[in-house]
UniProtKB/TrEMBL annotation:
Example GO BP: endoplasmic reticulum unfolded protein response
SUPFAM superfamilies from the UniProt entry: TPR-like
Bilayer topology term: Multi-pass membrane protein
Taxonomic lineage from the root: Eukaryota, Metazoa, Chordata, Craniata, Vertebrata
Family per similarity comment: Belongs to the TMTC family.
InterPro entries xrefs: O-mannosyl-transferase_TMTC, TMTC_DUF1736, TPR-like_helical_dom_sf, TPR_rpt
Glycoprotein keyword on record: no
Protein species of origin: Certhia familiaris
Protein name (Swiss-Prot/TrEMBL): dolichyl-phosphate-mannose--protein mannosyltransferase
Keyword terms: Endoplasmic reticulum, Membrane, Repeat, TPR repeat, Transferase, Transmembrane, Transmembrane helix
UniProt pathway: Protein modification; protein glycosylation
PROSITE patterns linked to this entry: TPR, TPR_REGION
Pfam families attached to this UniProt entry: TMTC_DUF1736, TPR_11, TPR_16
Amino acid sequence: QIFNQHNADAPNLEQTFHRMAQTEPNLDHDVSWFLLPSYWAKMVVALISFLCFANSYDGDFVFDDSEAIINNKDLRAETPLGDLWYHDFWGSKLSSNTSHKSYRPLTVLTFRMNYLFAGGFYPVGFHVINIILHCTISVLMIDVFSILLGGLQFSNKGRRLNLAPKSSLLAALLFAVHPVHTECVAGIVGRADLLCALFFLLSFLGYCKAFRENKEGHTFSVFWVLVSVVLGAIAMLCKEQGITILGLNAVFDALVINKINLLELIRKLLYKDKSVENAGLLLRKGLLFRIALLMCGGASILYIRWRIMGTGPPAFTEVDNPASFADSLFVRAINYNYYYSLNAWLLLCPWWLCFDWSMGCIPLIKSVSDWRIIALAALWFCLIGLICQALCSEDSHKRRILTLGLGFLIIPFLPASNLFFRVGFVVAERVIYLPSIGYCILFTYGFSLLSKQAKKKKILAVAVLGILLINVMRCALRSSQWRSEEQLFRSALSVCPLNAKVHYNVGKNLADKGNQSAAIKYYREAVRLNPKYVHAMNNLGNILKERNELHEAEELLSLAVQIQPDFAAAWMNLGIVQNSLRRFEEAEQSYWTAIKHRKKYPDCYYNLGRLYADLNRHIDALNAWRNATVLKPEHSLAWNNMIILLDNTGNLAQAEAVGREALELIPNDHSLMFSLANVLGKSQKYKESEALFLKAIKANPNAASYHGNLAVLYHRWGNLDLAKKHYEVSLKLDPMAPGTKENYNLLRRKLEQLQKKGG
């Protein structure tokens, strides 16, 4: 449906648009920059944005990628596609009290497609898609900036005109090479922000497409307004920020399409000036209808989102966002504003970047005597100055650009501002991907003003080129840091030395690589910086347990469960330590407490079974291990222990049945093959036992016990030459293998006796 947008009281808007083209100052006139044809401009932006982040293509899965991708069952083919619509970004049910409520099913769907096409968790494909998305967004930015900086105008043939080609190219380059975007591009979970931005921009361009001119006068299309709403909904299904495009479309409509002067409108409303209606400033035909469509669409999207979410907002902890837990409203307000100033600084000077800004990285401001108050004052001084210029300037061109710049800077940031609900972070570089559009508008406009005043415009252009070059280098450096967890975590030590999570992650990375001594140092520092950091206590307790420093391990784990009584992993680890200290009753109680807080905890059932086995409570041990395998059918250790216990207690038939059941579920597990082969050998099923031993050896040829037990089988079977061969292989692999040397000596004596008889 097409509506005419002119009436008897207002001038024809087609004439208004052509008049604007003639009378408004052209931003490009004062900008000393490159003028390229549209196609070449887009090629340049695409190439430079690719060069910035190309070295991240072969990076690993890092930081949040583990939870969102590797441990997310929604990526696997066995999970029904329909489940994606009822799960959060991390694969948990939205109805769960532990869910983060981050509803991004379309982003998860793209991860799933990556996983299925690659045939597994190969990070290259994930990274390449992210780089392509950022390049595409950067190219689209040329069209978006041409509208925001040059206005929305069409040729006689209905094609949109780019009235600011130089300015839009500069702004798009600034966006493409901004180092703050590295987290979104080089970090795979940043795809949520990239997809959201893509559909965010498409929604804006779709809304602009609703205002094409024709011979009858300037018109608008309801179809394209509705398309814009649908694209906004898709953006929100990629990440929550996407919904803000509907508000920005309304602002754009009022300022650019209807050319409303906000200050003049407010004055007329305050003084009840009847000329408001006559001037058509408020009730232009179609404006309220389009805003009503946007509002209805937005309200419907939010209502559906609320119904799917099922419960209240997510429960974050104080370490995630300490300011939001402050009792004083003054402290909360001061710190929220300080966080805003830090985000603004990251846009202005993106040199100090960090993967995580929580856990003491930014200490709370608790008094007005704190020197950091200066940052708040500077932020609001600049914002108030810009707002005044945007409202009060007599230059309509200046008012429009500044208002749009501030709108794109502030409105997409609102969901992360803590104003409407508590968020789970202090500062997050990923959330300023969209607000950086506003920064690029303001920077470009500022550059045009400086160029207008400058006598040597080329020097100014060289300075901007220098900024772009520095940003490209910073992007490349930061991308290389995101290629591995070790580089990423260590890069944060100099930026946020007070962040306990940074030290924790460095320690965890070292522990995963087997460097326990260095890991202990970082875990201790994490606990020192945050004495309530239960995860650091748990991991440190685990390492100390493995190093047989049991008493300190018990102290740490006891403190962890005291601080967080429902911390199931710490209860289980405390049980393991108590078991090692031979305090069996306490260990059993700790295990059951862990299971109480985490009903489906196969590893805890496994450890409980080991405790019962140590106490010769064989039936209880078997039941505990059976529970572990029911909860986790691929739990190899639990299956193995059941087979071995049944074997050792003489229940060979039952051991054989359990072994066969296990191998059906885990057919390629060589340790299960070995255990079942031992049982079959004792049951004199030599041929089948031999086949399993050989299969196990093929899978793990350097296991001395595999060769040694196969040698015993051949020894019993009477294949003495083969027995001798495998005894020798076993002894070569492990000269101290228990029993093997004695058996080998017995075999040699028997062979010597047979030779003497034969002689």
